[in-house]
Amino acid sequence: MNKIIEKAASRVRSRKPSPGGSTSDSKTLKNQGSNASCLNISSTNTLGYGNLRCAVALPEGEDLNEWIAYHISDFYKQTTMLYGAILPKCTTANCPTMSAGKHCYGYLWQEVSGSTPKPLPAAEYVDNLMTWINELLEDEKMFPSAINLPFPAQFRDNAYKIIKRLFRVYAHIYLHHLQDVREMKMEPHLNSSFKHFIFFVQEFQLISAEELKPLQEVIDVLTKKVPC
Amino acid sequence: NKPRKRVFKTIREVPPRAFKFYMEQRIDNLMKAANERIERKRGLEAEMCGQINSMTERDRDVMRQMLRKKETQHLRLTRRKMNIDQFITV
Ligand SMILES: [Zn+2]
């Protein structure tokens, strides 16, 4: 009897969100009183909300540009892999235009500034987008990789643009491919990736409420305020 | 009549398994990295506590500054590595 109750209880416990499907957590952390940051508090076995939210906060004394650049590389990689998994389902027939919700938000691609923005099949749009980001990432002047090389004045502008557009990839996947995601059993992975992304966006207020609208519901569910 | 193969500049098909594996590792690692950073800071402070007689407050600030600089460099190196790994398929 006790065993059954224990089992049931553990099932309830394990229903706590477990981003990434991973159950391991850092076990190295001890509670260090005043020196400890908010991360120390959550000692659960799952990677809870509080953890991720704290992990994106700017560490004391860190350079904000460096922090943003690091996260952009990270999110670029996560979204290219995520979208790569969806790509076979994101055909021209299924997704003739890049959108987030069929009648809500359409995204147009503008090849060069001044030219007329035009609709593209979603896959082509994402390919153009990722190509554009990748070129910036490889541009030593924009994303310096040599130690001590400074970021350029226009870094912040470009960074905001990249983040804003990466959001559209998540929006497209949530609103057009959630069923595919579920069939591939990668919903927790999508959620973890997006949660990481959106915590970062919220921390530094990188995307306007208007742009976030297509996924507002998802955001509300995933980012329920949990104290650090 | 199969649709002709699409050609892309940057995006590639990724096996769902690879994406899942990557995310599991990634979430794990980023939590670890955050905790390790806190641990390094704590370690330095603890070490300096033990040198209460031989270190002035200025010395301590120099040490803290050095650690911050190292952390920034560490971020940059990690980013560079992430970019290089970008096209290595799992
Ligand atoms: Zn699609």
Automatic annotation (TrEMBL), chain A:
Where does the record place the region Disordered?
Answer: 8-33
Q: Which InterPro entries match?
A: MOB_kinase_act_fam, MOB_kinase_act_sf
List compositional bias (Polar residues) regions by residue number: 20-33
Residues recorded as binding Zn(2+), renumbered to this chain, are: 90, 95, 172, 177
Q: Could you list this entry's UniProt keywords, alphabetically sorted.
A: Metal-binding, Zinc
Which PANTHER family does the UniProt record give? MPS ONE BINDER KINASE ACTIVATOR-LIKE MOB (PTHR22599)
Instruction: State the protein's name.
Output: Uncharacterized protein
